[in-house]
Automatic annotation (TrEMBL), chain A:
<feature type="transmembrane region" description="Helical">
    <location>
        <begin position="744"/>
        <end position="763"/>
    </location>
</feature>
<keyword id="KW-0812">Transmembrane</keyword>
<dbReference type="GO" id="GO:0005886">
    <property type="term" value="C:plasma membrane"/>
</dbReference>
<protein>
    <submittedName>
        <fullName>RND superfamily drug exporter</fullName>
    </submittedName>
</protein>
<feature type="transmembrane region" description="Helical">
    <location>
        <begin position="684"/>
        <end position="705"/>
    </location>
</feature>
<feature type="transmembrane region" description="Helical">
    <location>
        <begin position="274"/>
        <end position="294"/>
    </location>
</feature>
<feature type="transmembrane region" description="Helical">
    <location>
        <begin position="248"/>
        <end position="267"/>
    </location>
</feature>
<dbReference type="InterPro" id="IPR050545">
    <property type="entry name" value="Mycobact_MmpL"/>
</dbReference>
<feature type="transmembrane region" description="Helical">
    <location>
        <begin position="300"/>
        <end position="318"/>
    </location>
</feature>
UniProtKB/TrEMBL annotation, chain B:
<feature type="signal peptide">
    <location>
        <begin position="1"/>
        <end position="19"/>
    </location>
</feature>
<keyword id="KW-0732">Signal</keyword>
<protein>
    <recommendedName>
        <fullName>Outer membrane lipoprotein carrier protein LolA</fullName>
    </recommendedName>
</protein>
<dbReference type="Pfam" id="PF19574">
    <property type="entry name" value="LolA_3"/>
</dbReference>
<dbReference type="InterPro" id="IPR029046">
    <property type="entry name" value="LolA/LolB/LppX"/>
</dbReference>
<dbReference type="InterPro" id="IPR004564">
    <property type="entry name" value="OM_lipoprot_carrier_LolA-like"/>
</dbReference>
Amino acid sequence: MRRLGALLWLALVLLASGYLALRLHDGLGFRTDLLALLPREEQDPVLQRANDAVTKALGRRVLALVGHADRETARKAAATLGDALLATGQVERIGEGIDVDRLKRLGALYFPHRQSLLSDGDRALLTAGKGEEVATRALSQAFGFAGLVDAGLLRNDPFLLLPSFLTNLPFPLSRLTPDEGMLSVTENGTTWVLVSAVLAGEPFELDLQDRLVGAFDAAVRDMPGVTVKRLGAVFFAHAGSKTAITEASTLGTLSLVGTILLVGLAFRRPGPLLHNLLALGVGMTVGLSGSLLLFGELHVAALLFGSSLIGVAVDYSLHYSASLFDPLSGSPSDRLRHVLPGIALGLVTTLIGYAALMLAPFPGLRQIAAFSIIGLVGAFLTVVLWLPSLDRARRLTHGALMLRAAAGLWSFWEERRWRGVRLVLVLGCALAGAVGLARLSADDDVRRLQAVSAELRHEQDEIQRLIGATTAAQFLLVQAADDEAALRRQEDLAATLAGLKAKGSIAGYQMPAAFVPSARTQRENRALVATALDAPLLAAQRASLGLPPADPNDKGPNSKAPEGVLTLGDALASDSVPFLRELVLGPGLHVVALQGLSDPDAVRAAVAGTAGVRLVNPTADFSALLAKYRHRALLLTGLAGLLMLPVLMWRYGWRGGLWALLPPGAALVLAPAVVGLMGQDFTFFHAMALVLILSIGVDYAVFCAESGVEQQPVTMLAVWLATLTTLLSFGLLAFSAVPAVHSFGVTMLVGISIAFLFAPLAARGTRHNEATNNARLR
Amino acid sequence: MTRIVVFLLALLAAFPVLVAETRAAETLSEGQVLRGAFVQERFLKGFQAPLKSEGRFALAPGRGLIWRTETPFAVTTVMSPAGLVQEVKGNETMRLPAARLPFMSKLYTMLGGALTGDWKALEDMFAVERGGGADAWTLHLTPRRADDPTMPIRAIDVRGGRFVDEVEIVKPDGDRDRLTFRDQVLKAEPPTADEAALLASAGRP
C-alpha cells in the first residue's frame, strides 16, 4: 500500500520537476512591485481604473536632467543618453511634446478652430470690452522688433488669437524652456537639459529594469564631467529589486547552510541530513511548480517568503529523524507510526493557519500561502511515503548530552525547584505584554514599506526643484455623463483651481478642458470674438496690417460649419496634444493632473462641494487598504486559532486542547507587545507574521503534547531543531533592509522564540500525561 | 521668434566690427552707446504693402538694446543680459526672463565675440561671403545647416559703410524683413537715465 503510494508520489514529483524545468527553461519572470501584493480594490471599479491608469502613466515616466557648464556638451550628452535609452527597446518615446513634427500637428489641429479657442487672458479682456488691447498686441507682434509672425497666420488670424492660446496652454515642467528642440534650464552657470522617456512596459519588470538602468548607467559612465540626475519609478524599483534579490539569495543561503550544519551536528551522519534535504527539496519543487501552475507567475516577495518555507518543511522530517535517538524505537515503520500522529496533527493545524492566509484577497499572500501549503504537503508526503523505505539507519546513541540539554526546557517547566523563576518569568511576560501592547501603535503608510534609496530620493528632489513642480500622484477625477459634460465641469472648476494656485496649494494643473474647451465655451468664444473683436475692430486691424478689407461674405472659416467645434475625439485622434491621452480615461471620465501639490487637504476641501469631482490619492487609498487588511489579518489569526481548537480538543479533550493552544497563544500576545516595546509601529506585515506564528507554534505544542514521558528528551530535541531552523529562515528576515520584510522577520523571531519557550506547557492538559505530570509536580 | 532676436542683435552688435575689419576704424566697446534711426519693412506674402515701422534704437554694449518703434504706433522692446521685455503704451505685452532663455548665454557669447572681432560663434552657424570695398562692403550669410527644419532663416544680406546701413533677412517661405539704418552716432558716454531705466526693466523677473 505504501509502496504504491510512494510510486505515485514519485510520479507526481517527477511531473512537477518536469514542469518546473520547462518553466525555468522558458525564463521565469518574477514580479517585483510591492503594490501587486495588495488586493484590487473591490468596491469602485471606476476609481480603480482611474487609479491604475494614472499610476501607470506616472510610473512609466522617466526623467533625467543632464547638466554641464557648457551648453553644447550638455545637449550632446542629453542626446546620447536619449539614444542609449531608445536603443534598449524598452522605451516607447523620448521627449514628450517637443518635437517639431508634433508641434506642427498641434497647429494643424487647432488652426481651423482658432476663433473658438481663446486663452484665459484674452477671454477676460474681451469679456471686459478691452478688444483694443488684443488688437494692439497683435500689431506689436507684427511690427515689433522681436516679431516673427508667419504671414499666413497673420492673414487668417489678424488678432493673433491662436498663438496666444497656444503659448498659454498649461504644459507642465514650468521652469523648462524649449531651446532648439530640447527643454532646458540654466542655473548658476550650469545648463540642464531634460531627457524624458516613456517606458514601453511596466517599471516593475525585472528584465526591463536591468536593461534600461544598465544602459542608463553605461551612458552616464561615458560622459565624464557631466552631471546626471534621474527621476522615475523604474530607478526606485530597480534599486528595490536589487536589494530584494541580493537578500533573497544571501538570507536563503545562510538559512540553508545553517540548517545543514545544525542537522549535521545533531545527527553526526549523512542519513538524516539527506532525508531532510530530500523532504525540503521535494517541498520546494512541488511548491514552486504548483504555484506557478496556479498563478502563472510569482512575485519576488512570494519567493522570498517561500524560500523561508525551509524552516517549516523540515519540522516533519526532523521529528521523524529525531526518533532515531529514542531508545524504544524499532524499525523505520515503527518510528513513523510513532511520530505520525504528531506530524499529521501538526500538518493539519499548520494548513489551517495557511488556509487562513488564502482568505486574504492579497494576490501575493495567496501565492505565499499556496506555495507553503503545496510545499508542506509535499514535504509531509515525502516523510511519510519515502523516508521509512530509504531509512537504513540504526538507533543513535551519541546524543545523551544533547538530549539532556534539550530536555532542560521541559524540566524547567516541570520541576519544582524552578517554580520561583517560572513565576517571575510568567509575571515578567505578563507585565511586558501589558506595557508593550499599551505602547503599540499602528501605522499603515504604504510608503514606509519599501526601502527607498536615499540617493535617488535626493536626486528626485533636485530635479523637482530644477524643473519646477512635477506631477503629483494625487489627482482630481472628474466624472460626468459624457465628455462635453465633463469638460463643462472642469471649466466650472477652473476658478476654484486658480484660487488654489494663488494660495500656493498647487503649483499648476492640467485638465482636458484647457486643451479642448467644451462645445459650450467654444460657441461662447466665437460669439465673443464676433461681437467684441471682429465687429468693432477687424476692418481697422486689416487696414493697419495692410491687408485687403475682409470679404463681407466670408465670416471666417468657421462659418462654413456653424456647429463645427473641436471635439476631444478629434484631439485624441490627432495624437498631437502632449499628455492629453493620459488625462482622458474614457467617455466622461477625465483626470485633472496637479503639479506641486503642497496641501492636499485644501484641495480636497475646495472640491468637496462639486458634484462628480473628487481628489484621488492612490497612496492614501493603498494605506487605507493596508489598514483594512491589517485588521483582517488579525481576524484571520483569531479565526485560525478557533478552527484549530476543535481539532486539538478532539485529540486532547477540552482542557488539553486549551493547554495545547496556550504556547502559541502566548506568542501571539507577546510578539506584538515586543514590537511595541521596540518602538516600532504595528503594520500589516507584523500581523501576517502572527498567522504563521500560530501555525508553527501549534506544531511545537502538538509535538510536545503527543510526547510520552519517555520520549520527552527526543521530542524536545526535535522541537529545538525545528525552532532553530525556523529562526534561521524566518528570523533572519529581521535583518532585511526592506521594511515590510524586516517587520515580518522581527515578529517571527520574537513569536517563534516564545512559542518554543512555552511549548512544554502544551503537554500539561493531555490525558495520557496527566498521571506522570501530577507525580512530578508533587 | 527669439532666434531672430539673436541674429539681429548679433548683427547690430557687429556693425562697428565689420567696419573695423574693412577700415580699421572705431570698434564698439563698453562705455559707448550707438544710437540711430531705423526703418523695418516686412514683406509678407498676401499683403498689399510691406508692414513698415520706423523708430530709433540705442545699443549699449554689455547692457543691452533698446528698440523703440514710433510709427505706426509706439512699441518698445528692450533686450538685456537679464531678459527681454516688450511694452505697448506702458503695458507689458511680452516678458522673457533670461532664466527662461537658456540660449541667452549663447547669444551673449556671439554678441561679445562679435564686439571683439571674434566671428567664430556666428560663423559656426553661417557661411559668410564678403564683398565690396572698404567704404561700401557687403556680407552674405547662409545657414550651414540649411536642412534644419527649426532654422527660420534662408539667408541674411548686410550692406554697410562706416556702420551697417541695411540688413535683409530672407525666411524659408520667401517672406523678407528689411532693416535700414540711418543717422547713426557713436558716443562714448553712459546711457541716459531714461535708457538705463528701460534696460533695467528687462531684468525684472
